[in-house]
Design brief:
Pfam families: PALP. The protein has helices at about 10-30, 45-55, 70-85, 115-125, 135-150, and strands at about 35-40, 60-65, 100, 155-160. The protein has about 180 residues and is α/β, with parallel strands linked by helices. A four-stranded parallel sheet has the order 3-2-1-4.
């Protein structure tokens, strides 16, 4: 299995998660504005976007890149979604669109920036939710900045927390203040 489960078989887990999420969203009757998640090795993003494009075509799935530009990340997510659809013997939905925000990964993979650290501290202090400096912290930084810049349509947002909180302990200097 490749890093991050980023193969068509590995991506099936997040296809299933996307189908479950779609069912939960439909049961609420709420029109969510978007789903926001970290986009790294592409398995999570590809699987979730594939399922949601099929079940809730109006719902954007926005991947905040954690290690590379949109130009470099786009073929990874798109290609993996195409190969996963092929494995499932389904057509890629016509409305399938990879949406990426790449303004938040600098300086590089594994190095948090000021926005990431601020997002981690804010969410921990207000919600008691621990984010990591490599993935979810960068994604939350993008979500918060997107709210501030009014990049979302009206409606509540869904943030997909993919874990990683133990990584906080690898960055003691960043959180010693």
């Amino acid at each position: 299995m490749p890093i991050g489960g980023s193969s068509p078989i590995g991506t099936l887990g997040y296809v299933r998660a996307g189908l479950e999420l779609a069912e939960q969203i439909k049961q609420t009757g709420i029109d969510f504005a978007a789903v926001v998640l970290a986009s790294g090795s592409a398995g999570t993003h590809s699987g979730l976007a594939l399922a949601l494009a099929h079940e809730l075509p109006q719902l954007p799935v926005i991947g905040v890149t954690v290690s590379r530009s949109e130009e470099a990340q786009l073929p990874k997510v798109q290609g993996l979604a195409e190969r996963t659809a092929e494995l499932l013997n389904i057509a890629l939905p016509e409305n399938f669109k990879v949406e990426l925000w790449d303004e938040y990964f600098a300086p590089r993979y594994g190095e948090p920036n000021a926005g990431t650290l601020s997002a981690i501290k804010l969410v921990a202090s207000h919600e008691g939710l621990l984010l990591d400096p490599v993935y979810t912290g960068k994604a939350m930084s993008g979500l918060l900045d997107g709210i501030g810049r009014q990049r979302f349509n009206d409606g509540p947002l869904i943030f997909l927390h993919t874990g990683g909180a133990p990584a906080l302990f690898a960055y003691p200097d960043a959180f010693s203040h």
